[in-house]
Amino acid sequence: MSDAMKMVEEGHTIRSAAKVAGVNYVTLSRRVKKKDQGGYKKPRCVFSEDEEEELRKYLMTCSRMCHGLTPAETRELAFSYAEAKNKGNIPDSWKIRSAAGKDWLTGFLKRSETLSIRKPEATSLSRSTSFNRHNVNTFFTNLKESIAKNDIQPGRIWNVDETKITTVHNPPKIVGDKKIKQLGQVTSAERGVLVTGVCCVSSAGLSIPPAYVWPRKTDRNMANYMRGTPTNSLGLFHESGWMTNDNFVLWMEHFIHHVKPTTEEKVLLICDNHKSHLDPRVLSLAKNNGVVMLTFPPHTTHRLQPLDVAVYGPFQRNYNVLGNEWQISHPGQTISLYDIGELSGKAFLRSLTPEIIVSGFKKTGIFPTDENIFTDVDFLPSSVTDRQAGSDTQGDNLENLEGETSPLPSQINQPTTCEEDPQPSTSCVIRTEKTITPAHIKPFPKALPRKNNTQRRKMSSMVLTDTPVKQQIEDAAAKRASSTKKQAVGKKKPVVRKRPLPTPETSDSEDEGVAPIEPDTDDEYREEEPEADIDSLR
To answer: What CATH code is carried by the domain that includes residue 168?
Structure first.
């Protein structure tokens, strides 16, 4: 096209130039006409490049703080930003709607290489605020001290965690008709039966045979359930299908049997603060066999735990693919508990590879140990809260092993303005239109100071097998057991009232000789059995 335009400038006709250059005659004619009229007009831009860059930085920061703006909120912010900058070219349609147009947002996203409309993952307030620099530094301090104090050799750092396995898989993406609005894929049922899988991996890329907690009251037919699982896998049972204190004691024996730690060659086992991991029997068994147990800070395993970071994601994807293949090859049938062992066993073999396991330890900074692996950007979500986690002590943490902190109120502060003050003051800075940024229009979210009216305290990272911590956990467990026993003794049995016998004055001849009614022995009058302690699977 440029060659054709040059030929026209040199005196050639438009038709001959188009023929020689091999371009369309109509297109070349339009280009020549526009050039004679002064050229194409640039599209009207409300903001300059620097102002749009300020908007990009603000939107990226908000999204990293887990308080991202919706497209509608972004358009409203753009309009308010244009008004604050006293832009004279604000379209009338913006003023009518008090928001920028959809076409502006589309063009703004096209001009940006770092922004797009995303579907965010729901993140709890506890998770977003607990992953802060203080908690992370505390964990790495305990990690380095445990390695140095116990002479833990490289490759003898282990991580254990539970994951869910259900009879209903999540269908993977398929190739289908794009004209159909909603495509379906067959699964076994709407709600599945839960089986807990327990994996344990090391920093050397090794893993021990997984364990399964089957939702059964007894171990009957355990051999059929374990069919297809990896060799030497451990089969456990509980009616809920979740991990319990008794089952984790059995798993600890399973771990010691395969890893073979000693008091001379100790191993480091890192786990979360699930209450089954804090059982005194588990701690005694671990300490007597050379297992040093270290816990993650609560609500930080999504960034600190190698299994969550690298292993369980591929495992769930592989399990879903295998479940989908099974469903297609068995039309009209449903995945049962007897099929989970084979499907999950194949998924474990595909996921528990040395490359994946080693990458998990490296990404979390556990091995090789790198306490600076997380930057300030990673801690942005915790900047919303006023939480200062350094005030709690280990002793306070152990007072309530299952305690949670009260939720944090959050709000977006409104911009403050300078009011007339008869006295001169320097506390209020007068901003010109050049210094106004999107953060001045819509300040970053910041929670209000919390009221210290709760007695519950948040747990932190602890070395469970250290003597002081272990003793405090045992004392807390004994105290809870004593309290539970007293409540059981003081509980009154239900009073069973007997139906009164008919009196001679009111009794008819047919009622004579009726025997007194004995107390019913139905379950309605029996003392209820205590409910099973169902632990939440994380």
So the answer is: 3.30.420.10
